[in-house]
Amino acid sequence: MGLDEDSLEYHRTDPPGKIEISTTKPTNTQRDLSLAYSPGVAAPCLEIDEDETDAYTYTAKGNLVGVVSNGSAVLGLGDIGAQASKPVMEGKGVLFKRFADIDVFDIELDEADPDKLVEAVKMMEPTFGGINLEDIKAPECFTVEERLREEIDIPVFHDDQHGTAIISGAALLNAADIAGKELEDLEITFSGAGASAIATARFYVSLGCKKENITMCDSSGIITEQRAAEGELNKYKRQFARDVPEGDLADAMEGADVFVGLSIGGIVSQEMVQSMGDNPIVFAMANPDPEIGYEDAKAARDDDVIMATGRSDYPNQVNNVLGFPFIFRGALDVRATEINEEMKVACAEALADLARQDVPDAVVKAYGDEPIQYGPNYIIPKPVDPRVLFRVAPSIAEAAMESGAARTELDPEAYEEELEARLGKSREMMRVVLNKAKSDPKTVALAEGENEKMIRAAYQIQEQGIALPILIGDGDEIRQTSANLGLDFDPQIADPSVGDYEGYADRLHELRARKGVTRTEAGELIERDSNYFGSVMVEQGDADALLTGLSHHYPSALRPPLQVIGTDEDVDYAAGVYMLTFKNRVLFVADATVNQDPDEEVLAEVTKQTGKLARRFNVEPRAALLSYSNFGSVNNEGTRKPRRAASMLQDDPEVDFPVDGEMQADTAVVEDILEGTYGFSELDEPANVLVFPNLESGNIGYKLLQRLGGADAIGPMLVGMDEPVHVLQRGDEVKDIVNLAGVAVVDAQKE
């Protein structure tokens, strides 16, 4: 099947379309229904009647955008009418929800008269927190947006105009930087003079380009003052008329620094690109075929051609999804009255700045594992980069507050945490730990310091103020890799082959001499094995914590810390814990990595240590020791172990959280089962600490929950060690290293 057939199947599969409405409050009981509707719903109605702004408190208005279109200018399809445009508008709603957690009603209006369109939208103002105008043809779209901005008190944004303007504006900021040119000096040629082109030209002026340096061409050639005087141009085109000789697009491109294509495909030749100035910037954004193909534009010049298109199969895609979801997110969250020029400029600047930062592994994987680094082939962020939400929405909110468009004030730090929570519970939970880490950063040694991921993690850890990282490895190689990655930081390095670390070898020999390790062997281990080096570094107090394991099997990475650092004074066994986050629930799962067949004493110890870990995430633990039986329903050695462990913990005066078992997994996590059938349990709420009876079941269980249950997994976090040590999984991403560094710092703070 081709793309068209696949798309038809995608849309018609039951239920048809791409969106649905779901409830956000419980509707399981008669009480729930009486609160949701009659008679309880009268109370919020009366509150809103007293103060209309309470609609933001008691209804979904503050997170609801209307996507409004008449289908008169659907991208690539033209005037197909309101009904035929509905799949596009539903798709727009999907993007709002996917990227910024904004709910959408798509509104298709069968109306061409701009005055009637305005009146229809005005009547819907009470419903929405904002209006996204979509696929309305020029010049009517200008009239509709201008009037709505004046006549209603919620943000109005015509994405076809401003989306392309903002995203290409971000690209222009970085392209000019790379080309070594100032915005005010750029000679810019536009192909196209429709809504998008005019809005883009206006926006470039807002960024710092000079209006008198912009030459705009329509299908009749250069837009000149002569043509304006002859009455040939509408008022929107007239603002970009220049006092220059008449000519065609080829004339306009000669000597230009920038070409901006918002017209039709295939109208620019290699010769036209060759006629441009040094290191030209070419934004060929016609869809689906650009004004000139990527390969042709690149091949036209010997110097750098910085090229962007509207296509996803080439570098530097100018994709509006980088803008509108996050612009509305910030605008809605400060209850803005409009989306003004200051907010648009803030969006472009935030996107430009983000493209200069290190790119997350997840983004690199999504684009074929090819290196992504700031330069001619990467001047704007990728649409799937989750950081766009955290950079753009706060920038929009701040610009709205500073420009007077906001009706409420936000605390920047609290707002970022709120945004992270929208992307999942795991981000919310990690923010708790990372904030604790930043309050008192500690020194974290990173074994395998020559690994590219470790170097990138060290940069982020230092940049965010989470910890003071020390990279263990060859200093020259680490510095060269850092330079190759374009990371602007001077890493602290411990190079075993350069520094005087004889004391480390002596200490390792002292600790392991009676285990058969000679002084010579100890020296070789310190020089060649960063796991032993890092373990001794932490044991000697030269670092507060250690991360290792990125390129080793878990047992071999764990062995050196166990041999050198060992377990805590009152603990005989370490354990590996995963934090699993669901939409509205957090679980700590132990032991998933260390103890193969624990007895009741080990199970009890693991439970205590996991409870302490939960509290570092501000989670009050409720522990269940799992089995395949409930409270003695099966009696054998396997079921007696967790039962005895639970009894030991209940009798331990140091355990100040509820513990029970043995119990089945569904008993532990389903409230109706726990309270209904087993009301005698020590747990008055479902468990959030699940202790599995052995390593096999723990590893299987957490992976099933992660893969089939849709949980995000953070870990494994090593508990029970005498000093903070965490062993990564092979293949972990940079964000996993950064997260575990935060956990390690909080561990060290506790020490």
From TrEMBL:
The residue ranges of the Malic enzyme NAD-binding domain are 161-401
Q: What GO terms describe the biological role, i.e. biological process, of this protein? A: malate metabolic process
Q: What InterPro entries does the annotation carry? A: Aminoacid_DH-like_N_sf, Malate_Decarboxylase, Malic_N_dom, Malic_N_dom_sf, Malic_NAD-bd, Malic_NAD-bd_bact_type, ME_PTA, NAD(P)-bd_dom_sf
Q: Does the keyword Metal-binding apply?
A: yes
Tell me which EC number(s) this protein carries. 1.1.1.40
User: Which keywords fit this entry according to its UniProt record?
Assistant: Metal-binding, Multifunctional enzyme, Oxidoreductase
Q: What is this protein called?
A: Bifunctional malic enzyme oxidoreductase/phosphotransacetylase
Organism per entry: Natronorubrum bangense JCM 10635
